[in-house]
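Task card 7
Instruction: Convert sequence to structure tokens.
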Amino acid sequence: MTKATAETSADSGATVSRPAGEGPAPNPPAAEEPAADHDPPHAEDDVEWEADPALEPVDELPDARALWIIAFTFAALGLFFPLAGLIAIGCGALAWRRGSGRGRIATFVALGTTLVGILLTVVVLLR
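Output:
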């Protein structure tokens, strides 16, 4: 039988001392696995939803459309009344959450106009 040392047993708790300036011991090279061929996300023979218009995704819901329209309207009011800008931010965020791309744009427009409205309010009040 052999005596347990740091080189032969990881459970021994002993460490190997190295001269100063040598740095940590290099790690053994990891075994690389060959890259596996994966199927593409959409197989070429999967053309059913493209052929059937009933299976195509809906662009946006009607309530999301109403929300982003309200968001743009209140964003314009947010230049003069910052509270209206906060309402616009909320409506735009709700439209964005419901999958509307224009809801995202409305949210950022509302953020910008609300910040400008706050700055204008501060300038007018400090005058």
